[in-house]
Amino acid sequence: MVFRRLVLVRYNFVVSNYFLNLNPYSFAFVGFVPKPRIVTAYTGTQRLIEFSSYSLKTNSNPLNLSTDIDKELLIKIIEEEHWDDPRIKVLLGSVLAPIHLSHFLVKLRDEAPLALKLFNWFSNQTGFQHTIESRCIIVHILFKARMYRNAHENIRTMLTLNPIQLSDIDVFDILRSTQRMIGTNPMVFDAFFGVLIEEGLLEEATDCYYRMRKFRIYPKARSCSNLLYKLSKSSRGDMSRKIFVDMIAARITPTVFTYNIVIDVMCKEGDLRTARAMLLQMKEMGCSPDIVTYNTLINGYGKLGQLVEATHAFSELKEVGIKPDAITYNALIDCHCKYNELCKAFGFFGEMRRNGVKPNVVTFSTLIDALCKEGMMREAIKFFVDMRVFGLLPNEFTYTCLIDGYCKAGNLFEALKLVDEMVLVGLNLNVVTYAALVDRLCKEGKVLEAEEVFRAMLKSNVAPNCLIYTSLIYGHFKNKNMELAMKLFNEMRGKGMKPDVSSYGTVIWGLSEHGELEEAMITLGSMEEINLKPNEVIYTSLMDAFFKAKKAQEALKLLHKMLDLGIVPSIVTYGALIDGLCKEGSIREATYHFERMKDLGLVPNALAYTALIDGLCKSNCLEEAEKLFQEMMEKGVAPDKVAYTSLVHGNVKHGNLQGAFSLRDRMIENGIEVDLHTYTSLIWGLCEEDLMEEAKGLLGEMIGKGVSPDIFVYNCLINKYCKLGNMVEVYELQGEMRRRGLVPSNGGSTMPDEGMG
């Protein structure tokens, strides 16, 4: 018997899944030897192979495979479900069963329900596997009969096969070649394209799109929009743009959904100019923007801080007759809060309520977060209460904002009350909540409690972040426990967590505070090795540590390195620099950097002024110090206690007691408490001028104001009374010293420079 059959294969000899593991030339078990002849090439390496001129040489009766079951008989067998018909059984037992099925399906191309019934019966037979060819044929038949749901299900089944089975099979080519057998609508390819998208096979879907375009098969705008949406959600905005441009070129008319996706992609990439151009283009094409279009633009402008443009888009939305919704107002409130326009944010909140748009949890949480960041905790709690009046339940974010706000305000008690409430209502603490608690506890020196929170977090399967480790490291350094701090830092890196600039900065600060400057410099070097750029805070803490260690040259080297790296020094950096140079006695260099700071556009703060005033006073440059003090006042920088004390000290040294007491009076007028250093200077000055009654009276004043005199104050008075021969006062003062737990000594009465600033 002669068998002629066209079989679709790809690459070598893939006619069915049965052949995948077989040698194409070893068919002795069925008694025939194939003689393949290539007759037509469809696409790529896919070919039609015609099995011709071969005879079945089985020991049973010969079977004419191509004509044994005609269409009428086949229909009757299926309708009456005579699945035990010998002809069917013989075919099912053959290795070529999938090929027979494809042949039967082609015969039944106009009998879709029967074709599907036959296809499903074969599917349920043990050991039987469909070829991609037979699956594509049934899809075409179903699509032609408008049985779209069944067609989609079969496409999905085909695509969810074991990837190994599909790895060398070009389903698109097979679907295209089998279309010629059935003669279906080209939209079957759009269905195939759509299922690829639904299954998340985006690379395959993109390839399918371009192959459809190549063969002038145009997918529906809806399918293209779905692909653009999925691509945008998988961070492949560039591909979304490319396909959108191709859609326009192919005259596939985009819908408002399509434009919204592309505008969203542009906004997320920060390309608001193109996003705006897209809005104009869609209007020109007769596609009316909707609320989603404008919300996307408003949110995009807001994220970049372009608040004027966001407000303009909002006005345009209302002009075209679209009513703003909660998402619109939330976007406006959020961006104005983030860019410190809190009054305008509350203005939008008021408008929202006047227009009958109900605020949601996001609205209240955004405002609560902004109030907390401004330290306005009372107002934040009021909104927290109002939320519930509106019937809204606070979520994790709401509670975390308040807990973080209270922690930053130093109110740990209220923060912990909210944590208890949060747990009570069944909300889980997240890593931000834990970080806020650990940070506050460490700043208050409660490191043991912070570690308890840390352990509770690990028990709750919440992974710690850099901030939590950094807070704990800071807490241990602050508690003078350098070993535990470094252990945590190494543990952090050992777990594969990459410390950030803040983490390294804390470690460098801690090592510097403990006098481990060499180790601190090594840590700085390790930052540079991993291309993590230190900031001005790190360099400032190191410079300050080197100045305190009497290593001014090393501190200045760090300043020059900082400048070479393009790191701009801050006001704090210059404050530390000026203070360090003044303490080293390098007043002229300190003055140079003070002026240099102003040349760079930095406005000196109280620390910088005070450091230089103190240095000038100690270097007997009182006139310059007083001029600087006057400049400080004129610039609106309020002098602090140290600035006043330094000038009092300088005036006393120059014998200007009247000026010193005048400064003391100004301190009191400005609400600055006179401290031990100021009283000491004044008492010493009075003693030097033999004004003992006034000096004794000032001692009584300081004690009356709760300032405890130290040994130096008593010695000033005792030594002067000794010189004046007034031993009664000497004994009285020595007795008072003993009552205060101070041991009388024969200390001198030299001017106290140390500790005065």
Automatic annotation (TrEMBL):
GO biological process annotation, one example: mitochondrial mRNA processing
GO cellular component, one term: mitochondrion
Repeat region (PPR), residues: 255-289, 290-324, 325-359, 360-394, 395-429, 430-464, 465-499, 500-534, 535-569, 570-604, 605-639, 640-674, 675-709, 710-744
UniProt keyword list: Repeat
The organism's place on the tree of life at top rank: Eukaryota
Record-linked NCBIfam families: PPR (TIGR00756)
PANTHER family: OS03G0856100 PROTEIN (PTHR47447), PENTACOTRIPEPTIDE-REPEAT REGION OF PRORP DOMAIN-CONTAINING PROTEIN (PTHR47447:SF28)
Family membership: Belongs to the PPR family. P subfamily.
Full protein name: Pentacotripeptide-repeat region of PRORP domain-containing protein
Organism field: Amborella trichopoda
Lineage, broadest ranks: Eukaryota, Viridiplantae, Streptophyta, Embryophyta, Tracheophyta
